[in-house]
Design brief:
Layout lengths: L1 H8 L3 H9 L3 H8 L5 H13 L3 E6 L7 H21 L5 E5 L11 H18 L4 E3 L7 H14 L4 E5 L5 H10 L3 E5 L14 H16 L4 E5 L3 H13 L8 E5 L4 H9 L4 E7 L4 H10 L1 H14 L1
Parallel strand pairs: 1-2, 1-8, 2-3, 3-4, 4-5, 5-6, 6-7, 7-8
Helix pairs in contact: 1-12, 5-6, 6-7, 8-9, 9-10, 12-13
Length: 308
Amino acid sequence: MLGPVILAASRSDKMRRFVSAAPGTKQVVARFIAGETVNDVVPIVQDLAARGLEVTLDVVGEDITTVEQSYAARDAYLELIGRLKELGLGARAEMSVKLSMFGQSLENGHELALANVRPVVAAAAEIGTTVTLDAEDHTTLDSMFAIHEELRKDFPQTGCVIQAYLFRTEDDARRLAANGSRVRIVKGAYKEPASVAIQDKPEIDKAYVRIMKILMEGEGYPMIGSHDPRLISVGQELARRAGRKLDEYEFQMLYGIRTEEQNRLAAEGHRMRVYTAYGTDWYGYFMRRLAEKPANLLFFVRSILTKG
């Protein structure tokens, strides 16, 4: 029951100010956010790579209101790619982008977001890596999928994300699997109405399994975004049944969550990618992490009480 309340709070300026000022916030945010700058995140990427893990990097920030902010988001990713190139980390680190950050919700937002993300995708390709387009709320998805399709004409490794709790997702998965796309599947972390999304958690899990099966049996590259041990085990079995080798799919987990399990999967030979976010505009991302798992919220509340 807490999840929808926290998701609503993620859009509240009043709650943003309260959470940002809370004494325990900095400690908890550091668990999920790798830092505020490129200089903060580079040593973390190097450490993860040294442990046999791969990385996807997200410069956090979604609620932009001006075209100039969308250009700044583009430039932040170009700066990141430049640093990865200098350090020879292109083969181990890809990027995840939210098109809202690139201007998708502004006037002529579809064209603006495409124009902003294209140079990022091109620069990533030049250093031997790629970009995955994150899924946001359901109203943005038609635009996201159209931009994904357009980018794949020149950069076929461009990935996208689908969300198991949406009713539309099984059809999207079939289309993307047939097209040979790189696809990350997640449960979904936005507050969506019952008219478009499954509300019951066990039913979401069942949908997740059905969609994994579609992706594993398809022509693309599945990326299993989950911390759920049962779903990870099911994903391994579905990959085995589909005859996939260990380098023909991967698991993805968030930075700071189930670190031992990340290391275990990598040690077993699986491709294990750590979703690593950084930046100053961390609030929306942080609140969705709290909403996804009650234990995260309890950790946060305890930190406030002990630091207060």
